[in-house]
Write a structure and sequence with these properties.
Layout lengths: L2 H40 L2 H35 L9 H6 L3 H47 L6 E4 L5 E4 L10
Antiparallel strand pairs: 1-2
Helix pairs in contact: 1-2, 1-4
Length: 173
């Protein structure tokens, strides 16, 4: 084998290890979003706080991993004589021998699947949190706005009754 081929093989092996850690990180992120939704629904503030601390801690640790990936990517760009923007997994696949090409393809496919799933989980979590905020807003408006002139409530038999002077919360101390 030529030294350039050996150098590429070594760097690709390092990249594959980094991609495996990226896959684990994405799987963990999907899990965190599921747990976040669950704890929000259960209204478990203590566990939710611990989860958010854990996410922040792991996010700080993951920054070093991202720097490592970018470093390997730069090294591969130099070895393959291309600029950094062109250095993608697809481009790397096209320039590798079959056995390494298959390894990169497997990781690339898995990463795409996980990113798609993460986007779906993120959207679901965003919708849940938006609904919680909307519900809380409506609840607060109904509590503090109940005694405003013109507010209509209904009696137990279904007839409309205008509220004129009663309030649920007394704002005076």
């Amino acid at each position: 084998m030529k030294t350039a081929e050996i150098e590429i093989k070594d760097k690709v092996d390092k990249l594959l290890a980094v991609l495996d850690k990226d896959i684990q990180h994405l799987q963990q992120s999907v899990s965190y979003l599921n747990e976040l939704r669950s704890l929000t629904i259960k209204h478990d503030n203590k566990a939710l706080s611990k989860l958010l601390e854990r996410i922040q801690s792991e996010s700080d640790k993951y920054k070093n991993h991202e720097l490592k990936r970018q470093s390997i990517r730069k090294e591969l760009a130099v070895v393959l004589s291309c600029n950094l923007k062109e250095m993608t997994l697809s481009m790397l696949e096209a320039n590798l021998p079959e056995e390494q090409q298959a390894d990169v393809t497997v990781r690339k496919t898995r990463l795409k699947e996980l990113v798609k799933r993460l986007k779906e989980e993120y959207i679901s979590t965003s919708f849940l949190l938006a609904e919680c905020a909307r519900f809380n807003n409506l609840l607060l408006k109904s509590i503090f706005g109940l005694g405003q002139p013109g507010t209509i409530t209904y009696t137990v038999n279904g007839t409309a009754k205008r509220q004129t002077d009663t309030v649920l919360v007394n704002m005076r101390l």
